[in-house]
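Quick one, T. Sequence first:
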Amino acid sequence: MEDRIKPHESLIGPAIDAAEHFLDNEALRIMFAQRIASCYDRRKEIHNHPSFTNIIQGLSPYDAWNLQMVHNGLGFQCSLIYQEMSTEKGDDIRVYYNHNDSYYRSTMTNIKEEYKELLDPWKVSSANSLERAGLITVEKIIKEKHKPFVIETRIYSLTDLGSAFCSICLPEPPKKEDNDAN
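Structure tokens:
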């Protein structure tokens, strides 16, 4: 109880107002509940930023789930498919394909099953959304050539902002010894 503080109106007011619009979405409702609870916790005061409410509002439930995976140390990765080409001037370019391209759809029949989940357009969209919000960044890129195209797998980690956001807006990940006991 000694860590309990009176919340700053600039933090808790917008969070409560926004949370009312997300009551039917469990993942985002939990994030708002964590956000609001953190406003009363002196230990979290240093990481609590007014922009976190707006960030939650910009997330989809799938984004929240993927962010929780990174926060829990389970990782998050997605892949893109492209062809390397040269222009008439000799400049090297990459032509990226999305799931609406007929070439992409025909290529998918020749791709190993392990890549199909990573090439999921929802996963790519979620990665873009979380990266644009400044919560995750590309930690490592792995490229594999499959003539005539390349599969680029991006492995993501939390940014400093992402770590602060997760400490405020996500439930704590299970402790390692909790997992080992099972």
